[in-house]
Amino acid sequence: MGQTTLTELSQPKFPPLLLCLPGETDAAARLLAVHHCGKSLLFHQIMHYRSVGADQIMLSVEAVSGSLLALIDELGGRGIHVDIVRSPNEILTKPAPASTCLVAQAEIWFESEIICQVAAAESPLLATVEEHSENGAFERIDLNNRWAGMALIDFDIFKTTSDLPEDWDLGSSLLRQTLQRN
To answer: pLDDT tens digits, the chain, 182 residues: what are they?
Structure first.
């Protein structure tokens, strides 16, 4: 019987991930406080993105809590580095290994297949849902569509949003910049 060889298939590099925690303090705290199988929902969300290839992960937050720092320490103990960022300027200090960045709302769980499809897109892409009453929680972007909470954006958009006022939501601002640009 002949010898079997394995050939490693090259897969595209997963873009940096910006996981945006909700701006409302209570909503962000729930992602850390609600546990499933002994770990916070945010822990599971980060591990889910890691399982599909995300290795540069940034968390966009308005405030850094003790429970968030504990989560970052726990992930670090597992060899998973996560950067906390609060502004586009902080993001620009991180190495940008790709020309795009995957932006996702942390409170929305996406199937692996959807994450991979959006991450592999060759140009900026916004995941959308149609305008229906059941989609009312999603941010409206035009008359017929709402943002589904995930987008692939040009990394250089962070330069144009670097002077973002402190009380503005980073994820929403990046969405608006992407819509205006494309």
So the answer is: 455 544 444 445 789 999 988 766 666 677 777 778 888 899 999 999 999 999 999 998 888 888 899 999 999 999 999 999 887 778 888 766 668 899 999 888 999 999 999 999 988 888 888 888 888 888 888 888 888 889 998 888 877 776 766 666 777 777 777 777 76
Query: Could you tell me if 113 and 67 are in contact, meaning their C-beta atoms sit under 8 angstroms apart?
Result: no
Q: Residue 103: what are its φ and ψ, rounded to 5°?
A: -110, 130
Amino acid at 97: P
Nearest-angstrom CA–CA distance, 42 and 173: 22
Distance CA 167, CA 95 (A): 26
